[in-house]
Amino acid sequence: MNETVPSRWLDGRVPTRLSFVAAPNESAQAWLERLTHRYGQTPPAQADAMVCLGGDGFMLEVLHTTLDRDIPVYGVNCGTVGFLMNPNVPDDLPAHLATTQEAVLHPLRMRATNREGEVTEALALNDVFLFRQTRQAAKIRIDVDGRQRLAELICDGVLIATPAGSTAYNLSAHGPIVPLSANLLPLTPISAFRPRRWRGALLPSSAQVRFTILETDKRPVAAVADFTEVRDVISVEIQEDRTRHTTLLFDPGQSLSERIIAEQFTT
Questions:
Q1: Which residues are annotated as active site (predicted)?
Q2: Which of 6, 91, 95, 236 is most buried (most C-beta within 10 Å)?
């Protein structure tokens, strides 16, 4: 489950030791210079909070570096897409951070086996997706908790998203948006050919999913967990990893849970 919890600074403390990271674009770099001049630059290991200047892609990279570290991340949108970010830099950043809400995110763990028998494990805070490598459609068998649920899905690919990632690739593939507290993982086909009308499934967050690639020589498939890509996979196992976590900070009234709900009413 991904959770929204109150700020850790409700006791009146103010997070003054800040660590700043910025994407390589001009806007983010300008803000980095301005903010570090005003507030200083604390190494992440000693910081109360990390401030991430960039877009969602850069934020995702930063969140992977903070897994299991007790440092929350406050994002400011200096990029193109800012769903995981806050819109502006507050005038008094430390005081503002003390009023924020926290969202605790747990990643998916992918275990992918390729045709040579090599096993790659990777974590995904957004999604794990499989996609065909050639002009041939992929053929994939789907098992959930050791039980075959779909003998053959003919498609461009298939994905499993976290609730936080359900508004990203999953939504573009016409998958459902999932609230943070729902304890659900959307399983969504990408351009399904057979069964043509199958739109996917909502799985409990405890589900163990196994994708088995059929006709691997003729129809090679790659698997991707956020930034890790494995080519020529023959099987991929996915499960939420409750032992790992990272924490995001959001402005009051603009929590990640609220954003996910609001996204379902956009036109």
A1: 56
A2: 236
Catalytic site includes residue 56: yes
Length reported for the chain? 267
β-strand partners of 143: 148, 210
Amino acid in the structure at residue 145: D
> How many domains does the chain contain in total?
2
Task: List the catalytic residue out of 11, 48, 56, 68.
Answer: 56
pLDDT in tens, 173-208: 999 988 877 889 999 999 999 998 899 999 999 999
Q: Domain check: are 25 and 48 in the same one?
A: yes
Q: What is the pLDDT of residue 180?
A: 79
Judge whether 60 is annotated as a binding position: no
Query: Please, are residues 67 and 245 in contact by the beta-carbon 8 Å criterion?
Result: yes
- The CATH code of the domain that includes 193 is 2.60.200.30
> Binding site annotation covers 124?
no
CA distance 95 to 92: 6
- For range 143-153, the mean pLDDT: 97
pTM to 2 decimal places: 0.87
96 and 161 both lie in a single domain:
no
- Residue 178 near residue 211, CB atoms below 8 Å: no
Shared domain for 67 and 130, answered yes or no, is: no
Same domain, 145 and 202: yes
Annotated ligand binding at 56? The verdict is yes
Note whether 85 and 159 are same-domain residues: no
